[in-house]
């Protein structure tokens, strides 16, 4: 039986594939006020503006390609049971080959009902005004907006509590409650955090490696794969 590695990823890993982040100095929130684009009230007030913004993000995500970090994480599945818990709404992990990905904040390539969040559709095209769900409500992006509950949080917590190793990648740890998941890792698990910066203190027990994911993560994954093969982690 393969041992489990849990990987927690944030905007930094997608940024290295060319996708703008929200919270950096030149991020998306510098160009667009949060209250106009990422709340339920904003959608109700100006659905055309909100849909236009997320349709543009969908186009950008389609054009982006998985980088070396995404690919290295997918290749870990040769030796380990790998669970990706991501704050990102793109599908770069899936396109790199990762088979178990939990999206805490939703997915750009899906749409959902604006009155019943459990009604979700695979939706690779644009979302337009007048496109309705089965309850005849306007479709909206499958994105967790401010003030809405994070998706699959309990499932993610269970995975990280039983992990053999935990790797955090590209997160500043500024978005809660998602970032608090790293504190649930087992005491004896090897824990590494790779990021250009974090807000506040490094979580207890983690080795912090400051730098770019595409440079550091492949090295970590190579070492873990070699350890897994030699140590019989299957």
Describe this structure in words.
This protein has 234 residues and is an alpha/beta fold. It has two domains: 1-18 and 66-105 and 150-234, 3-Layer(aba) Sandwich (Rossmann fold); 20-63 and 109-143, SIR2/SIRT2 'Small Domain'. Helices cover 33% and strands 20% of the residues. It is built from nine helices and nine strands. The chain has helices spanning 11-15, 28-31, 34-37, 40-45, 47-63, 68-75, 92-96, 153-161, 213-231; strands spanning 4-9, 81-86, 101-103, 106-113, 120-122, 139-143, 165-169, 190-195, 207-210. It has a six-stranded parallel beta sheet, sandwiched between helices. β4 and β5 (120-122) form a beta hairpin. α6 (68-75) packs parallel to α9 (213-231). The longest helix has 19 residues, at 213-231. The termini are close together.
Write the topology of this structure:
Layout: E1 4-9, H1 11-15, H2 28-31, H3 34-37, H4 40-45, H5 47-63, H6 68-75, E2 81-86, H7 92-96, E3 101-103, E4 106-113, E5 120-122, E6 139-143, H8 153-161, E7 165-169, E8 190-195, E9 207-210, H9 213-231
Parallel strand pairs: 1-2, 1-7, 2-3, 7-8, 8-9
Antiparallel strand pairs: 4-5, 4-6
Helix pairs in contact: 6-9
């Amino acid at each position: 039986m393969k041992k489990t590695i849990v990987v927690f990823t944030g905007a930094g890993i997608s940024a290295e594939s060319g996708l703008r982040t929200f919270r950096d100095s030149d991020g998306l929130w510098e160009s667009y006020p949060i209250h106009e684009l990422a709340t339920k009230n904003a959608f109700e007030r100006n659905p055309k503006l909100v849909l236009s913004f997320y349709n543009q993000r969908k186009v950008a995500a389609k054009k982006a390609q998985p980088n070396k970090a995404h690919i290295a994480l997918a290749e870990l599945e040769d030796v380990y049971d790998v669970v990706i818990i991501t704050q990102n709404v793109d599908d770069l992990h899936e396109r790199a080959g990762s088979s178990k990905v939990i999206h805490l904040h939703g997915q750009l390539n899906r749409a959902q009902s604006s009155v019943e969040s459990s009604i979700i559709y695979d939706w690779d095209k644009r979302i337009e005004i007048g496109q309705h769900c089965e309850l005849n409500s306007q479709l909206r992006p499958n994105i967790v907006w401010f003030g809405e509950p994070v998706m699959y949080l309990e499932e993610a917590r269970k995975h990280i509590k039983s992990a053999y190793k935990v790797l955090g990648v590209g997160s500043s740890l500024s978005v809660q409650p998602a970032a608090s998941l790293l504190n649930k890792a087992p005491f004896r698990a090897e824990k590494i955090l790779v990021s250009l910066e974090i807000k506040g203190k490094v979580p207890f027990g983690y080795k912090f490696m400051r730098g770019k994911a595409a440079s550091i993560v492949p090295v970590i994954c190579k070492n873990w794969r070699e350890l897994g093969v030699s140590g019989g982690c299957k």
